[in-house]
TrEMBL record, chains A, D:
The protein's name: 2-polyprenylphenol hydroxylase-like oxidoreductase
One Pfam family of this chain: DHODB_Fe-S_bind
Cofactor binding comment, as recorded: Binds 1 [2Fe-2S] cluster per subunit.
Keyword field: 2Fe-2S, Electron transport, FAD, Flavoprotein, Iron, Iron-sulfur, Metal-binding, Transport
Domain FAD-binding FR-type per the UniProt entry, residue ranges: 11-105
GO molecular function: 2 iron, 2 sulfur cluster binding; flavin adenine dinucleotide binding; metal ion binding; oxidoreductase activity
Any GO BP annotation: pyrimidine nucleotide biosynthetic process
UniProtKB/TrEMBL annotation, chains B, C:
SUPFAM superfamilies the UniProt entry points to: FMN-linked oxidoreductases
Cofactor(s) this protein cannot do without: FMN
Gene Ontology BP annotations: 'de novo' pyrimidine nucleobase biosynthetic process; 'de novo' UMP biosynthetic process
GO molecular function, a single term: dihydroorotate dehydrogenase activity
Lineage, uppermost ranks: Bacteria, Thermotogati, Thermotogota, Thermotogae, Thermotogales
Oxidoreductase as UniProt keyword: yes
Keywords linked to the UniProt accession: Flavoprotein, FMN, Oxidoreductase, Pyrimidine biosynthesis
Name this polypeptide is given: Dihydroorotate dehydrogenase family protein
């Protein structure tokens, strides 16, 4: 509660943008990359709340991304009616942005692992910090993407676990992980040697700190994903058994 | 007993306590605040509350369920924001209503006493007697009707502010509750609050919380109608599932003095402008006649 | 005080009082009645009721509102059907629960006395204490809690049948109401009934009635949960917005002994077979474990 | 209430039929005639309750009709989501039928007036009793229908009122009217010399007498459209000022 007043100060202005879809491409089964004609400023780690009209009672949170350092993009996994609307509509998308805190890494010696649903963010971070992009997917990726963007792809749970153990013994200072909660937890628990950052997925109603709906338990008590995150240090979310070397 | 205060809102549209937080929507560009008569702040309790454990919210097509648990910085937090002038940005753009809650008789009375020095900043105080998401207070303060009546009396004695009781529909027939409120000299009621619901989210977690959104609308409209029928003079704020100007108009026509926009903010906060514009025009055209 | 009777239903699926009328659905081919544990008849009151003036019903995508007003032939009508054997066709296919209502203390007690000779025909009696569509009785019988408690006592004294109180959520917290029912030695509760709502139909007519259908489900589920939490042993029939086998299962998992199908009949009466089949299979698979 | 027990006896068996659409043709703006591959027995005046899946919380009532004395048909005005579903779906229609009481006229010296939304019924009655078919419409009819079936068409309110006064002084014993409530009321009030039958349109939930939702006020008290109707004598519904000749 101490930082309640600090939080209030942190608030910046949010704007609702109308975005025209440029390209909608399938990344993998049920998951799409959408690029837009328009652009606005944001920083790595930030997200937006997409209005889905009558297809949902809340705006829907999506991590912002950028391709080739210029094209605004999001990636969307069809999870229900709202995401289906986002992928399929021919209308402009009404998007509230930029929300949440930027992710500012302590060095450029990191790597980013994303699920296909967070590929736009992955590409953005990789290009922006000039770090390796790794995609962990349950299903094979569309060949096009693998070629167009520099990335390593790991398909299936076993491959993912091997990857984590490889990275745990790598020279990277930090690893950024964005995907499902399970995937993020596995990353944190299986890379105890590393500083792992995770982008959390709590259910959001407002996205701007008003509703207090997106609470998560951290080792420092309740935090809110939309105003304290969405990116957290993994060891703030899950207890990590540090190995004594 | 009743204070002679009246409540004149520049428009009959208010932001609901909770969904609007502590003014965060002022950071969203393009909302025209001249359409809003009052911004009701998130309920403040005497002591700070960290709120419930996550998950706290889940929505379907027709309703949402939240179990925030009145997370709020308590009176100390409120005092800090008020003393520091932080809230002045909000207050310069839109009048505000203070929402107060508590876990016991004593807490309600105590916070009423403590906020006194700040009352010139607010149009009114709304007392949340019906939050379904806290264990003490909220629901249970109304389970014992005699106790609750005493509390109404005690608060009325403590303040001459314009005081509004926010009522749910589960502690007794809402019009009977409202009659008690009026009898104790209060100025208004907000009807209704969320109704207790249960939902299982996509992760299989059980959420016991309050139901808001579209499914609430016909129930809230009926409550407004019933309360107005028995209390011709009380100030009524309608709350529950208002998403369109048409619904706002119906609420006004069935007796509400103002309508509250809550969950609809989450679908698209632009709803304020949409409803605001149409309602302001509607009232102008009514006036002409 | 409680009778030692138990209620063993062949399946935990019952037809709700009202939507099922007086057995009319037996005239619809292709319903497999072996899936139904009990057919609750439309509420019967001491005196015949012609019901409310039309319009009586209106639906949206997510709820319907009805103001039937307990139209029923009264005890004389019931007696005629029972004496003439007309109801035997129904009773030969599916066990039945009798639903009784009244406009006053005396009427409830009187009809309880009058139906005594016929009780071997019925599994149980459900008392409708919560119909929102009648002016006397219904809602108001529960407004005065002490009066209502006396009524519960009087009825219990009058009969040793398996008696079930049907409760709404508006007369007081439903679990507190259920506790009173249990304390007075009753055997079961049906939760919930419709909630009072208001809708304007396409002709601009105002319908003040009871809300049923999908919007009710999360509220009814919560009510079942709350009642079961405080009363581990009482028989609970869940009523409100049950349209799918998944919902029926949730109700059973959160403590219901049976689930009631009401408004869903109107969308397609085949829902009985759909829910029935899945629930029967589900219970078999549970047993095996 | 006296006939409660009589009502119970009157009940017959209802069946849910799956009907395959044969032809869907526009009668007039927003109103369609649908014919079916399948058939079942029913009598003039009876109706069915059409399931609209998730497009509505109740089955929707439609008067049954028959074309050329053989083809089962209904006509449907798009009034909302349910009727739109009925017109547009490619699935079979699930239809509960036959419901309500047959209309049994006292003589064959009558005429039938229908709105386009009740054209299927109109054609049926006209063919069955060999009586004139009159269509009263707000908008022009599709030429095809006017040619295919023998009918007189009246467009607009003034024409309708003229028609009624003409019929009031005609030699017909009775006039059957099926359309909107307003249209039926006008017919009853403007043809005081005639026995006028109307097919009522009360909101229905069950269609089989269970819910008591479809009540109407008659001069003999509350009746139920689904079990006492749907066809009523007009002077049972509206007070009629009989002219003394
Ligand atoms: C900060 C943040 C960033 C995200 N970024 C991405 C992204 O880049 N790409 C992507 O594919 N997905 C992302 N998600 C998840 C995405 O928001 C949900 O998949 C989407 O909201 C589903 O909406 P729906 O109507 O299709 O789903 P529903 O049918 O409503 O539900 C399907 C699933 O989505 C979740 N969900 C639904 N609504 C919300 C909501 N308002 N807030 C959070 N979760 C919800 C549900 O819990 C459920 O697990 C992000 C979530 C958060 C919180
Ligand atoms: C006995 C009877 C026979 C009918 N025959 C025909 C016919 O042959 N052709 C035709 O086009 N229409 C007929 N109707 C009217 C038709 O049933 C409605 O237009 C239809 O139900 C609209 O459904 P919706 O979901 O599209 O409308 P909604 O969007 O739900 O409402 C639109 C309008 O239809 C009415 N309506 C909606 N649902 C019902 C319902 N369950 N029962 C009665 N009215 C309802 C509403 O009151 C409203 O006026 C008949 C009605 C009755 C009672
Ligand atoms: C996330 C959330 C938080 C809420 N918090 C409060 C609160 O702190 N105090 C209060 O009086 N009501 C609170 N409410 C209730 C709303 O003010 C409103 O009465 C209710 O949601 C019904 O209106 P709606 O359907 O427009 O949202 C909250 C509602 C939601 C959805
Ligand atoms: C048309 C209609 C008539 C009803 N009549 C009665 C009644 O006579 N007695 C009663 O106890 N409940 C009555 N009810 C309430 C239902 O039994 C049920 O409790 C309620 O509709 C909620 O369940 P549902 O959403 O499954 O319909 C009626 C409901 C409807 C829709
Ligand atoms: S989503 Fe509302 S506070 Fe975070
Ligand atoms: S529609 Fe149910 S009784 Fe007529």
């Amino acid at each position: 509660m101490a930082n309640f007043s600090a939080e209030l100060k942190k608030q910046t202005k949010y704007k609702a943008f109308l975005l025209t879809k440029r390209i909608v491409e399938e990344i993998t089964q049920n998951t799409y990359l959408i690029t837009f004609e328009e652009d606005f400023d944001f920083l790595p780690g930030q997200f937006c709340m997409v209005s889905v009209g009558d297809a949902g009672l809340t705006r829907k949170p999506y991590t912002l991304g950028r391709l080739n350092k210029r094209e605004l993009a999001i990636s969307v996994k069809i999870a229900g009616k709202g995401s289906e609307y986002i992928v399929k509509t021919n209308e402009k998308l009404n998007v509230l942005a930029p929300l949440g805190n930027p992710f500012i890494p302590e060095s450029n010696n990191g790597a980013v692992i994303v699920a296909p649903s967070c590929l736009a963010e992955g590409i953005h971070l990789s290009e922006r910090f000039d770090i390796p992009l790794i995609v962990a997917s349950k299903t094979e990726l569309n060949e096009k993407f693998v070629k167009k963007f520099k990335m390593r792809v790991f398909v299936g749970n076993d491959e993912y676990l091997n990857l984590l153990s490889e990275l745990n013994h790598s020279a990277f200072d930090w690893i950024f992980v964005s995907g499902s909660r399970v995937m993020e937890e596995l990353a944190v628990k299986n890379m105890p040697n590393k500083v792992v950052y995770v982008s959390l997925n709590e259910y959001m109603a407002c996205g701007i700190g008003a509703c207090k709906g997106c609470a998560v338990e951290t080792v420092h008590g309740i935090k809110h994903v939309c105003t304290d995150g969405p990116v957290f240090r993994g060891d703030n979310i899950w207890q990590v058994q540090r190995h004594s070397d | 007993m009743a204070s002679s205060k009246t409540l004149r809102l520049r428009t009959p549209i208010v932001i609901a306590s909770g969904p609007g937080g502590f003014g965060e929507y002022l950071n969203v560009d393009s909302i025209d605040w001249s359409y809003v008569g009052a911004y009701t702040l998130k309920t403040i309790t005497l002591h700070p509350k960290v709120g419930n454990k996550p998950p706290r919210i889940y929505a379907t097509d027709i309703f949402m369920i939240n179990r925030i648990g009145l997370e709020n910085p308590g009176f100390v937090g409120l005092k800090k924001i008020l003393d520091s002038g932080e809230l002045d940005v909000l207050l310069s753009k839109v009048p505000a209503i203070l929402s107060l809650g508590g876990d016991s008789f004593e807490e309600y009375v105590e916070i009423t006493r403590l906020v006194k020095p700040y009352l010139d900043k607010f149009l009114a105080i709304e007392y949340n007697f019906s939050c379904p998401n806290v264990h003490h207070g909220g629901l249970s303060i109304m389970s014992d009707r005699e106790e609750w009546r005493k509390l109404l009396k005690a608060i009325r004695k403590e303040t001459d502010a314009f005081i509004i009781a926010k009522l749910g529909i589960e502690s007794g027939f809402v019009e009977e509750m409202a009659k008690i409120v009026a009898l104790e000299g209060w100025n208004g009621v907000t009807v209704i609050n969320t109704i207790r619901g249960l939902i299982i989210n996509s992760e299989g977690q059980v959420l016991l919380g309050g139901l808001s959104g579209p499914a609430l609308y016909p129930i809230a409209l009926r409550a407004v109608y019933e309360v107005r029928k028995v209390l011709p003079d009380i100030f009524i704020i309608a709350s529950g599932g208002i998403y369109t100007a048409q619904q706002a108009k119906e609420m006004l026509q069935f007796g509400a003095n103002a309508v509250s926009i809550g969950s609809a903010l989450f679908q698209n906060e632009y709803v304020i402008n949409k409803i605001g514009k149409e309602i302001v025009e509607f009232l102008k055209s009514e006036e002409k006649q």
